[in-house]
């Protein structure tokens, strides 16, 4: 078709975490799937060789002999421990001893099977998640039989190395090790070494289950040698509590710093003599240096490095002797005073060249940066992080390197990588506690956060200058060179670690950085995702966003930032879960054009795009679409922790997805031979149960994906529903054979007889929260409750549905049951009595397939063949907001996430959609199909005094009360009026509502219960247009076409005697009390505003003149000094209430009749509504319009009101809707296309689907800052 067309296929590979902060794509089969940390091996040579040395010959012999004696003891001795813990204070030489031990075990005894040397400096060596996979990898290399067993586990779950440590230990170590042949042979005894536990973050999660396995003899034939500082969290992992006061150490312990002083001094003397033999020092000099070291080998090692010089550069013999003399002069210092040693080295190095104060400060910044970064960096990268301008001064890089050279006793530069390391973990500890130059961690990380943001300003569109979108990233031959040239070490570091530094800032300093963070996300967030994609770091990208959201959610002051992060997360999910995730240019070509970039993120892409079909899209705000073609997802369930989704699919598979990215985890779970109709997680998240048209129930290990037991085959026809009991011991299933069966979750064997009672297919089953009952729904239109233990039906069937019952579920407290049916209704039932609660929830226009209750028990979500999802308030039965209408076909399944921030649904349109509902649901009360609100024009609306509630009155003869925050009706409609409700108002205390109607009555209602208080107030002879409470709540004023009446609000008696007359038989459209309650203002059809004494009914002023047409609305200012009015002449006018003189000119702007006016609570603004469909806000002092008109109503606006704090306006319209406006965001929105950096000329996308052979065709030109994809045309086919 096209000259440049290519056949195109994207494999379903995954992004997997490798060695901490490195990532690898599509790793091969076998043991490589474990992704071991090679740098943690004891004999590694990857840049840290100088920090792991061996004991000097003839030293530490007693210590090594003691350990070797434990090694050679028989494992068959019941009293022998399989674990040995050598603890020691910092600097006592633990790692050096361990290195020598490993060398001995490997070279002499041949029994060193695996090692893991932890290190704070190397990310992958301080990641506890890599400990077990790395050890298992080495054991597998040592034992062929064990290797085969481990590979079987990996074939079942390639992601097992990302599971919890306890699962790793069980699945990768205990189970395969126990299956080995010749397990108890003495020849099989080998040693596993883990050094420096205290330098591995989160090691306690590994240590607990591992030591338990050792103690319980589950790893017979393996001996584990541990070393660490004597820290409490590690000691707790080594012990078992017998009682509250008695503990037992589960491993042998040797405390290195308790070795006899003379033995340690002897070994240190030998070590110093050997290292400094070229200097021909006297025995007295050697003894002095030895005494200074006390029992700390690190002291001796640091002294020697200071004397001789560090790696690569040696001092002359003369300089070395001078350094010796400087240490000999410290012979009166306290032995082992490592702090004084470090302080002396620092002071000597920094003061050596008589630096200026600014140079001293610069040196300390370098030191503090080195110990604060998330991973070691080169001198060049450190220079850039510190903001030194290399272009202006070529020697800036030398400043860092020269300082490192002067501090070779504590720092060194790796020969192989040029990365800067510290020799010993005790040095950063010292720096953080050094009182001469204070290290403030929060300030340091705040500075580094700002540095990262500054450096990431280099991020730009197409940063690696990829020339074609036709080529997958992995096929770009020089991609690594492009990344190195255009991104480089420093920018790569910032992209990965900006969040690391931000989260280490104190919360008190957040205010300083939030603005910068928000700006970064808006201007560079998309480019950041691009850079992470091209570096194969999308999983890290998702991890950063997830961690950031967890931090943001704890702060109520970060709502704007939270919305922005969630906005970018939706883009990331759509890209990472798409079929073009391995082709970075398609982030811009195939994803962003369908992303609703309504928060102004750069780049903003014009939506002048021709779309035939879409690879992915957003049909609604904050909704992400994941195409599942060619299969349909029939069932969904979240893991209890919300991190995973399990899917039951039409292609006979069960799939597990990462809930944060929508990416499939591991391979599909294979076993079923027909459609999987139902899936569920166990309450602990470790197992999955599934039911299928193949008439089987299967149980799967959620971590490995391995089937746990034989399939349950008790049913004779299709299985429609499964559930697992809360305690995980039982599984219930419902089938087309009309029966319900219970089986053992471990063995798969049937428990008792089938539960018989339904006359037709069983469509849905669920356990009660305590597991004592089962509820079932059937095509026989009934719901039944069963006793789990006896299998006996509890009570009578629940009757009410008129067609097939498709879904049932218990509420979290077990007190209610929700059901859905083909009769288009959802119903709520009392789980104890079996009675229906309230009316059926109606709104869907076709069969309802699924319904479930939210985790907090307050909402119900339902999905229907009408392609919509609806959310209901479980207490009132009222629908919350609009239907979610983003599926193109019927909804098959829908679930709430455990934290209730998302709804996930699947559909027969072959998509899964993730809808974020944390920001609330849009509220419209009108004629939108299915909405449970007013079904005719809304005439009047008002906020309660405290701003928490809204009341509305409508042509539908009802008064309705709404929660102002959630826009949910809080009680059933208030019914009583027999004609249009034209006016409503709250009492000052918010406890009552008054309403007026064309039925000529006034009614007062209780807000809490929605019941009418007393009898209607009767006396008007014509339609009532306006009502209001007096400021003290004791009176009600009502106005009809020709009269005004005042009533006692408690007794309903008319006050003032006679009616207030004087309107020349002209209709009174609006009445309002003055703030002090002494006056009443009336807006009249006779073109006047009249003011009356509220107590006597006497007119107090002449009518306010100057109107050309009838007056529709009147309102007093909060101080009572002004009156605002709105008229048929399209104007708003402001009057002096005491003189009746108009203030200033008329406020002009509306194009049609002004129907309603109101003052803001502070009196500074006026809001007006008009039949021109707009709401306008005016400055009460100047008369100027504030911002642009508020537009959105599709018919005339009939009523407006301010919230009590003045931040929002509520409006009611003849379009049957009520809208709430945030006036600080809705006013003057401005040009939303101001970030116009990119343009797509034309594009047409087809869904990629092997089933239908469709394709993508596009022709485009994308440019920014000189980077261009020019005239690329692709034909993508299968």
From TrEMBL:
Keywords associated with the record: Repeat, WD repeat
Domain Nephrocystin 3-like N-terminal: start-end pairs: 77-229
Database matches in Gene3D superfamilies: P-loop containing nucleotide triphosphate hydrolases (3.40.50.300), YVTN repeat-like/Quinoprotein amine dehydrogenase (2.130.10.10)
One Pfam family from the record: WD40
UniProt keyword Glycosyltransferase, yes or no: no
Domain of life: Eukaryota
CDD domains membership: WD40 (cd00200)
Segments annotated as WD repeats: 633-667, 669-701, 712-753, 755-796, 798-830, 841-882, 884-914, 931-963, 974-1015, 1017-1042, 1061-1102, 1104-1139, 1147-1188, 1190-1223
SMART domains to which the protein is assigned, alphabetical: WD40 (SM00320)
Protein name: WD40-repeat-containing domain protein
Species name: Lentinula lateritia
């Amino acid at each position: 078709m096209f000259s440049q067309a290519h056949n195109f296929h994207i494999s379903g590979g995954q992004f997997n975490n490798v060695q901490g902060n490195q990532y690898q794509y599509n790793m091969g089969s076998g043991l490589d799937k474990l992704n071991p940390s090679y740098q943690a091996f004891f004999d590694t040579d990857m840049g840290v060789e100088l920090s792991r040395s061996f004991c000097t010959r003839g030293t530490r012999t007693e210590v090594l002999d003691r350990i070797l004696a434990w090694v050679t003891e028989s494992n068959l001795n019941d009293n022998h421990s399989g674990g040995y813990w050598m603890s020691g204070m910092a600097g006592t030489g633990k790692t050096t001893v361990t290195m020598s031990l490993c060398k001995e075990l490997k070279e002499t005894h041949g029994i060193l099977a695996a090692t893991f040397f932890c290190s704070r400096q190397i990310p992958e060596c301080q990641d506890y998640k890599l400990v077990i996979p790395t050890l298992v990898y080495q054991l597998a290399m040592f034992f062929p039989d064990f290797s085969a067993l481990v590979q079987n586990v990996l074939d079942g779950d390639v992601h097992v190395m990302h599971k919890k440590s306890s699962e790793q230990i069980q699945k990768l170590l205990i189970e395969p090790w126990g299956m080995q042949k010749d397990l108890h042979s003495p020849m099989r005894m080998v040693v596993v070494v883990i050094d420096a536990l205290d330098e591995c973050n989160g090691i306690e999660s590994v240590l607990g289950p591992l030591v338990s396995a050792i103690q319980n003899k589950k790893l017979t034939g393996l001996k584990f040698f541990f070393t660490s500082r004597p820290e409490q969290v590690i000691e707790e992992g080594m012990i078992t509590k017998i009682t509250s006061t008695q503990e037992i150490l589960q491993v042998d312990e040797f405390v290195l710093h308790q070795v006899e002083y003379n033995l340690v001094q002897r070994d240190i003397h030998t070590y110093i003599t050997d290292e400094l033999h070229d200097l021909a020092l006297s025995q007295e000099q050697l003894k002095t240096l030895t005494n200074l070291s006390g029992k700390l080998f690190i002291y001796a090692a640091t002294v020697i490095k200071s004397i001789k010089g560090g790696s690569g550069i040696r001092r002359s013999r003369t300089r070395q002797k001078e350094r010796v003399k400087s240490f000999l002069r410290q012979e009166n210092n306290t032995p082992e005073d490592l702090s004084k040693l470090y302080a002396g080295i620092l002071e000597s190095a920094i003061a050596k060249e008589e630096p200026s104060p600014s140079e001293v400060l610069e040196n300390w910044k370098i030191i503090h940066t080195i110990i604060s970064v998330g991973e070691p960096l080169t001198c060049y990268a450190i220079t850039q992080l510190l903001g030194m301008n290399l272009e202006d001064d070529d020697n800036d890089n030398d400043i860092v390197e020269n300082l490192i050279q002067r501090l070779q006793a504590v720092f060194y530069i790796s020969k192989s990588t040029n990365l800067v390391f510290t020799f010993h973990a005790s040095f950063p500890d010292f720096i953080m506690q050094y009182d001469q130059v204070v290290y403030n961690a929060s300030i340091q990380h705040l500075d580094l956060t700002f540095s990262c943001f500054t450096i990431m300003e280099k991020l730009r569109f197409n940063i690696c200058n990829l020339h074609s979108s036709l080529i997958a990233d992995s096929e770009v031959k020089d991609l690594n060179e492009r990344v190195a040239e255009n991104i480089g070490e420093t920018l790569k570091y910032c992209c990965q670690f900006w969040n690391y530094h931000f989260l280490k800032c104190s919360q008190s300093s957040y205010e300083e950085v939030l603005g910068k963070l928000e700006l970064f996300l808006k201007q560079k967030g998309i480019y950041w995702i691009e850079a992470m994609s091209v570096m194969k770091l999308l999983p890290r990208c998702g991890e950063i966003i997830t961690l950031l959201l967890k931090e943001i959610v704890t702060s109520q002051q970060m709502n704007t930032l939270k919305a922005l992060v969630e906005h970018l997360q939706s883009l990331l999910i759509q890209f990472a879960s798409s079929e073009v995730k391995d082709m970075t240019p398609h982030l811009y070509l195939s994803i962003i054009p369908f992303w609703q970039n309504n928060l102004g993120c750069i780049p903003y892409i014009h939506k002048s795009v021709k779309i035939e079909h879409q690879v992915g899209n957003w049909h609604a705000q904050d909704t992400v679409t994941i195409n599942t073609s060619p299969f349909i997802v029939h069932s969904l369930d979240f893991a209890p922790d919300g991190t995973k989704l399990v899917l039951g699919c039409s292609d006979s598979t069960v799939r597990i997805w990462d809930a944060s990215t929508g990416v499939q985890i591991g391979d599909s779970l294979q076993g079923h031979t027909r459609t999987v109709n139902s899936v569920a997680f166990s309450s602990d998240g470790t197992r999955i149960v599934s039911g299928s048209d193949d008439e089987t129930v299967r149980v799967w290990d959620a971590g490995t994906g391995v089937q746990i037991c034989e399939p349950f085959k008790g049913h004779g026809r299709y299985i429609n529903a499964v559930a697992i009991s809360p305690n995980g011991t039982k599984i219930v299933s419902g089938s087309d054979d009309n029966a319900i069966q219970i089986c053992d979750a471990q063995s798969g064997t049937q428990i008792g007889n089938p539960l018989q009672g339904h006359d037709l297919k069983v469509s849905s089953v669920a356990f009660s929260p305590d597991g004592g009952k089962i509820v079932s729904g059937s095509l026989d239109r009934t719901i039944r409750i069963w006793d789990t233990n006896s299998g006996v039906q509890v009570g009578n069937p629940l009757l009410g549905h008129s067609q097939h019952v498709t879904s049932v579920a218990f509420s979290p407290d077990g007190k209610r049951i929700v059901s859905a049916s083909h009769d288009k209704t959802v119903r709520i039932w009392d789980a104890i009595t079996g009675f229906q609660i309230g009316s059926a929830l109606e709104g869907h226009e076709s069969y309802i397939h699924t319904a479930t209750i939210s985790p907090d028990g307050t909402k119900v979500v339902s999905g229907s063949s009408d392609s919509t999802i609806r959310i209901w308030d479980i207490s009132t039965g009222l629908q919350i907001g609009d239907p979610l209408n983003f599926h193109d076909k019927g909804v098959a399944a829908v679930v709430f996430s455990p934290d209730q921030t998302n709804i996930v649904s699947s559909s027969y349109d072959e998509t899964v959609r993730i809808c974020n509902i944390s920001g609330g649901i849009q509220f419209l009360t009108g004629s939108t199909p299915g909405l449970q609100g007013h079904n005719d024009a809304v005439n009047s609306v008002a906020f309660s005094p405290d701003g928490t509630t809204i009341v509305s009155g409508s042509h539908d003869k009802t008064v309705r009360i709404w929660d102002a925050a959630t826009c949910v009706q809080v009680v059933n409609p208030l019914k009583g009026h027999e004609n249009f409700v034209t006016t409503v108002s709250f009492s000052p205390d918010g406890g009552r509502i008054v309403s007026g109607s064309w039925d000529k009555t006034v009614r007062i209602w209780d807000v809490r219960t929605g019941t009418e208080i007393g009898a209607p107030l009767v006396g008007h002879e014509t339609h009532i247009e306006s009502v209001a409470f007096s400021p003290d709540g004791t009176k009600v004023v009502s106005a009809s076409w020709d009269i005004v009446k005042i009533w006692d609000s408690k007794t309903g008696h008319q006050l003032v005697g006679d009616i207030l007359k004087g309107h020349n038989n002209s209709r009174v459209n609006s009445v309002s009390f003055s703030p002090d309650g002494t006056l009443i203002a009336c807006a009249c059809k006779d073109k006047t505003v009249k003011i009356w004494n509220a107590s006597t009914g006497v007119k107090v002023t002449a009518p306010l003149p100057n109107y050309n047409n009838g007056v529709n609305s009147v309102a007093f200012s909060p101080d009572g000094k002004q009156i605002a009015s709105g008229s048929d002449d399209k104007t708003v006018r402001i009057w002096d209430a005491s003189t009746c003189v108009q203030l200033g000119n008329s406020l002009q702007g509306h194009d049609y009749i002004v129907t309603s006016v109101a003052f803001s609570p502070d009196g500074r603004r006026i809001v007006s509504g008009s039949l021109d469909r707009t709401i306008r806000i005016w400055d009460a002092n100047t008369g100027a319009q504030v911002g642009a008109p508020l537009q959105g109503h599709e018919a005339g606006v009939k009523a407006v009101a301010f919230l009590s704090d003045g931040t929002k306006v509520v409006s009611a319209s003849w379009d049957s809707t009520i809208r709430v406006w945030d006036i600080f965001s809705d006013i003057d929105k401005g040009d939303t296309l101001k970030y116009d950096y990119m343009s797509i000329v034309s594009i047409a996308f087809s869904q990629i689907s092997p089933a239908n052979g469709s394709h993508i065709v596009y022709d485009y030109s994308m440019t920014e800052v000189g980077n261009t994809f020019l005239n690329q045309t692709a034909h993508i086919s299968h």
